[in-house]
Specification:
Helix content is 36%, strand content 14%. The protein has helices at 2-21, 65-71, 149-165, 187-202, 208-224, 256-272, 278-293, 331-339, 347-354, 403-420, 458-462, 469-482, 484-487, 510-524, 527-533, 536-544, and strands spanning 31-36, 45-49, 55-59, 72-76, 85-90, 95-100, 109-114, 130-136, 184-186, 236-238, 244-245, 254-255, 311-312, 365-366, 369-370, 437-440, 443-446, 488-489, 492-493, 497-498, 503-504. Helix 4 (187-202) packs parallel to helix 14 (510-524). Residues 323-535 form the Glycoamylase-like domain.
Length: 552
């Protein structure tokens, strides 16, 4: 108690002495708050900012007005362009109000900075640099004239088709992996491209003869120039030479899943080009040769296991050791393997390896929607798209699921997640939705509710069209009319965008562009479903796996 009294007396003594001697306590000059359009942010990030925002910065002491005008700046992030500002002062000059002199660009990132050259009226320097991030809101005006939904569907299919037609590899005709991949073409993406050619012929974007000529080029290259591995194709190959291009160090041989996508496309084309003339007859023969050459059952480690394996390498053998297990994008691989004329797998392989004897079942509900199969919240949307470019899920069942219910539930869960927007990303909602594997700002990722960073992939919502026709059409209108100046390009919609970070891809990927064309067509006419499911070996193979459907 005596020590406390002594300390109190000492403080009082020096305090009084300071007052008596006229000593001034040094001023501390710091910012207290920033408001943008009357909104505060603890993290100094402001989204959906008005085109002409009002920025209020409050400090601990009155400002020197002249220093404010040279120390407070707004710059456009991408270009470092300085934005002219107007300045106002209120609250006895403790608050400065800053506004741009003209409207800011929509969907653009800006940086507000206040440097320590800012002084108070007592000439005290600001104690630290202040930085805030501003992202302007979407300009909600239409970027293109309104047309009917039917014409918009035509336009999206036709423009997206240019990726496979105009940008197809000049030597092989196969689909390049992406718009920057040079000679690297993709086997699976080429399967999607082949199905897109069928749509283009049927929609009269190209003539039947033009489509036939391109398919002859593709199939002749696949048969006569491409290096295969037990009949299966690599993920990537050189579109000029046919040599395997390693996807990774040990993935330098057969990729059975990508091969199944290619075969899905080839069988669909075979069923479409059913004319009796010499050219169409020859095309069908070449496709049958390619189809029959794949040693599907050999990928059970040459019959040693009841697992079907994804990869085999001529130099690393089975080292990747990846059984193809569900639920994911590879159901088509089992359908193709069971449908083979020469080397079909047994149903036990499907049950043991793919279905894991029922372990792929889910049965939980998300957003009030029961999900029969797969991971929590469904996973990326390509799970319900790639296999079902050809497989018709309408009234399709087996021991594990009703596949129309599965794919519809998956799509609606993804839609409802984006609509709920639990992470508060810009652009998400009933119009802006769709999470799947795609490019992102710093790489590539399989986006889904459990792996979400604000990246929307147009292919996700648009390729869900058969399952969510209303919601997918809303997304298409939003992408085209509202974001068209940012994401609508020569080959359709760019691969992805993120409105929270204001990033727009400049890339197009075969595996993302293809499903847009195909699944829109399946919703409109069921063309690809009808063709693929008409193949006699597909009917037999799916029945052997235990599938039931009016289409079998």
């Amino acid at each position: 108690m005596r020590y406390s009294i002594a300390i109190f007396l000492l403080i009082s003594f020096f305090s009084c002495q300071s007052k008596e001697e006229g000593v001034v306590v040094p001023e501390t000059f710091y910012y207290k708050s920033i408001r943008v359009d009357k909104v505060t942010s603890d993290r100094m990030n402001y989204a959906n900012v008005n085109a002409k925002p009002v920025i209020e910065i409050t400090f601990s002491a009155p400002l020197n007005r002249e220093s404010a005008q040279s120390s407070i700046k707004l710059t456009e992030k991408a270009t470092s362009k300085s934005i002219p500002l107007t300045y106002g002062f209120v609250g006895n000059d403790t608050t400065v109000t800053v506004m741009p002199q003209s409207n800011l660009a929509a969907l653009t990132a800006y940086t507000l900075s206040v440097d320590p050259a800012l002084n108070s009226q007592q000439k005290t320097a600001l104690n630290a640099t202040i930085t805030a991030n501003l992202v302007t809101a979407l300009d909600s005006t239409d970027k293109f004239p309104r047309i009917s939904d039917s014409l918009l569907l035509d336009l999206v299919q036709k423009q997206t088709f240019k990726y496979f037609w105009d940008f197809g590899h000049p030597v092989s005709g196969l689909a390049r992996e992406r718009n920057s991949s040079g000679d690297v073409v993709t086997s699976g993406g080429s399967g999607f491209g082949i199905m897109a050619i069928v749509v283009a012929v049927d929609r009269k974007f190209i003539t039947r003869q033009e489509g036939l000529d391109r398919l002859v080029k593709i199939t002749d290259f696949l048969k006569n120039k491409t290096k295969t591995h037990h009949g299966a194709f690599p993920h990537w190959l050189n579109g000029a030479t046919g040599e395997t291009v390693p996807f990774s160090q040990k993935d330098n041989g057969a990729d059975l899943v990508e091969t199944s996508y290619l075969m899905q496309g080839l069988l669909t084309a075979r069923q479409y080009f059913n004319g009796q003339n010499a050219d169409e007859t020859a095309l069908r023969k070449t496709i049958n040769d390619l189809w029959d050459a794949v040693e599907w059952n050999w990928f059970t480690k040459n019959g040693a296991e009841t697992n079907l394996y994804w990869h085999w390498s001529p130099t690393y053998n089975w080292d990747m050791n990846m059984p193809i297990r569900g639920w994911n994008e590879a159901l088509i691989t089992y359908v193709m393997a069971a449908s083979s004329n020469k080397s079909p797998i047994a149903k036990t392989v499907y049950d043991n390896s793919w279905a894991q004897n029922g372990k792929m079942k889910n049965g939980n509900s998300y957003y009030g929607i029961k999900l029969p199969l797969g991971p929590a919240n469904g996973g990326p949307l390509f799970f319900s798209q790639y296999s079902f470019l050809g497989i018709n899920p309408h009234d399709l069942t087996d021991a594990y699921a009703n596949y129309w219910e599965q794919n519809t539930a998956h799509s609606l869960i993804n839609y409802n997640y984006c609509k709920a927007n639990p992470k508060n990303f810009s652009g998400y909602g009933e119009n802006g939705w769709g999470l799947t594997a795609s490019d992102e700002q710093n790489g590539y990722s399989a986006h889904e509710p459990n792996n979400d960073n604000g990246t929307i992939s147009p292919t996700a919502a648009l390729s869900s069209m058969p399952y969510t026709p209303k919601e997918s059409m809303q997304a298409m209108r939003f992408f085209y009319y509202k974001l068209g100046d940012k994401i609508w390009k020569n080959y359709g919609f760019v691969d992805a965008f993120n409105l929270s970070t204001i990033w727009f891809a400049d890339s197009f990927l075969a595996i993302d562009q293809g499903p847009i064309i195909i699944m829109i067509e399946n919703q409109r006419s069921q063309l690809l479903w009808k063709l693929f499911m008409s193949a006699p070996e597909v009917k037999k193979g799916m029945k052997n796996l235990g599938f039931q459907s009016p289409n079998l």
